[in-house]
UniProtKB/TrEMBL annotation:
Region of interest: Disordered: 429-468
Protein's name according to its UniProt entry: Peptidase A1 domain-containing protein
UniProt-annotated catalytic positions: D83, D287
GO BP terms in the entry: proteolysis
Gene3D superfamilies recorded: Acid Proteases
Organism: Clonostachys solani
Ranges for domain Peptidase A1: 65-392
């Protein structure tokens, strides 16, 4: 099983192709970290380096996030999807086999790597891999990719990763963007050296970062900026302390950047409904390469019911677009921390039918995934060394204030964000540093709900597998592979 990318491609609807902006970011770099910012598709990149952390710029392409890299010498510029649901870095999807004509054209703007043009010189090709992707419970998401491998220098911001191994597509189906994978290998885990030295491992070995740690700052859906901070934490982008959670295995026992969540809830017009998650409903993967969040029915239905969502004939949920403007939120309890996701992030700014917008949740009977529709509301620091994830409510209270992580088995320091409740990315009552409820597992696939009034307290290797208003909207699903994970983009046609 691999990660999923589910995105809504507005350019398909508008009949336009969004050109990639190859203004290459400058990294904010310091002792032990590299920070590469992320921005919109039509904005110039910026990046800085300070105290050895690297801030890597991401492009918010409406429903997926990309970063620019340069490979070889002279540099060949490529735009890659940033994916915490997969481990491999690969390039050169077969644009001719992209899911739509629009995506064929978009694929062509993302750049290609030609080994013979590199004077580094490039090493390869060597080895090969065939990987299958998709939600096992949804055959419409299944896709595959065939790779061979090269080694060359890769520039990220102003940091150069020497002799990095990466995949190049021999054949692909349903893909239009290469992948910059940041997850552990599904088989060998956090070792980072199998099947080759993964990017985060190489950055550590070459002294670019002090520990295999990175922070993900996606911002909300209306934002034009964001960042991946390699080897550091930006205190100006979250509220309160970071809650440390151990990573958990995926649904098939594979290594993942996954955690357990205790509760979910919804706040509408000051009325808060919270329910505990039990059994497998608690297990989620954190995947920046997936747009729409995928939940089991018992976990998702209370939220969808509270939103008044109606299901179309293809299984997608629609609500009145006016919901996006309401001061409401959906909450997720991470241990003692509650992350509140505003309706404006969870409900996508796209009218699938007259006055009806798509809710960023779909149902699965397989691996649960928190995608970008949820991750945008949180600040997440992923720690390979201690196999943990640190979580806080996202905010924005000024310029970068980056703290580099230290060396060792538990490198993430105990830090408190600079931001206050007023700096949260939305307003929906007070933001709390603790969760209201804790869950007690009693059985798999069930949940218990409680009601309360007032304001909410917010606080690849080998062959692998990686898922109402129906009369008014046609929803067509195409698959898009991510590096060590599945991926598919949802194209909505009015």
């Amino acid at each position: 099983m691999r990660s999923l990318v589910l995105g809504v491609v507005f350019s398909l609807l508008a009949g336009q192709v969004v050109d990639a902006d190859f203004g290459f970011p400058k990294a904010k770099r310091g002792e032990g970290f590299l920070s590469v910012p992320i921005g919109t598709v039509d904005r110039p990149h910026s990046a800085k380096r300070d105290t050895k952390a690297i801030v890597s710029e991401l492009d918010n392409r409406e429903f997926f996030y990309t970063t620019d890299v340069e490979i070889g010498s002279p540099p060949q510029k490529l735009t890659l999807l940033v994916d915490t649901g997969s481990s491999e870095l690969w390039v050169n999807p077969d644009c001719a086999n992209a899911p739509s004509d629009t995506q064929v054209q978009q694929c062509k703007t993302f750049g290609r790597y030609t080994p013979k043009n590199s004077k580094t010189p490039a090493v390869g090709p060597f080895g090969n891999e065939s990987i299958k992707y998709g939600d096992a419970s949804d055959s419409s998401t299944h896709t595959s990719v065939n790779l061979t491998y090269y080694a060359d220098d890769i520039t990220l911001g102003d940091a150069v990763i020497k002799n990095q191994t990466f995949g190049a597509v021999v054949a692909s189906s349903g893909q239009f963007a290469g992948i910059f994978g940041l997850a552990p290998d599904m088989k060998s885990g956090f070792d980072g050296k199998e099947p080759y030295s993964l990017v985060l491992n190489s950055m550590l070995d070459q002294g670019i970062i002090a520990a295999r740690v990175f922070s993900l700052d996606l911002r909300h859906s209306e934002s034009t900026t964001g960042a991946v901070i390699y080897g550091g934490i930006d205190k100006s982008k979250f509220i309160g302390t970071l809650e440390k959670l151990p990573t958990i295995r995926g649904s098939s026992g594979e290594y993942r950047l996954g955690v357990s969540i205790n509760t979910m809830g919804v706040t509408i017009k000051g009325q808060n409904s919270t329910y505990q998650l039990l059994g497998d409903d608690k297990k989620v993967m954190l995947d920046s390469g997936t747009t729409i969040t995928r939940l089991r029915e018992t976990a998702a239905k209370p939220i969808l019911k509270s939103l008044g969502a109606i299901q179309d004939t293809n299984g997608y949920y629609l609500v009145d677009c006016k919901r996006r403007e309401e001061a409401g939120s959906v909450s997720f309890g991470f241990g003692n921390k509650t992350i509140a996701v505003p309706f404006s992030d969870l409900i996508m700014d796209f009218q699938a039918a007259a006055g009806l917008c798509v809710v960023g949740i779909v149902l699965t009977t397989d691996q649960q995934i928190l995608g970008d529709t949820v991750l945008r509301a949180g600040y997440f620091t992923f720690d390979w060394e201690s196999e943990s994830v640190h979580v806080a409510q996202a905010a924005n209270c000024g310029d970068n204030d980056i703290v580099a992580v230290s060396k060792g088995d538990d490198p993430v320091p105990s830090v408190t964000g600079n931001c206050q409740e007023k700096d949260a990315l939305f307003t929906d009552g007070p933001v709390s540093t603790s969760s209201q409820a804790s869950a007690t597992q009693t059985s798999s696939g069930s949940s218990q709900a409680t009601q309360s009034g007032g304001s909410q307290e917010n606080s690849g290797n080998g062959s692998s597998n990686d898922q109402g208003a129906g009369a008014h909207v046609q929803v067509v699903v195409w698959t898009l592979m991510t590096a060590a994970g599945a991926g598919f983009f949802l194209n909505l046609l009015a």
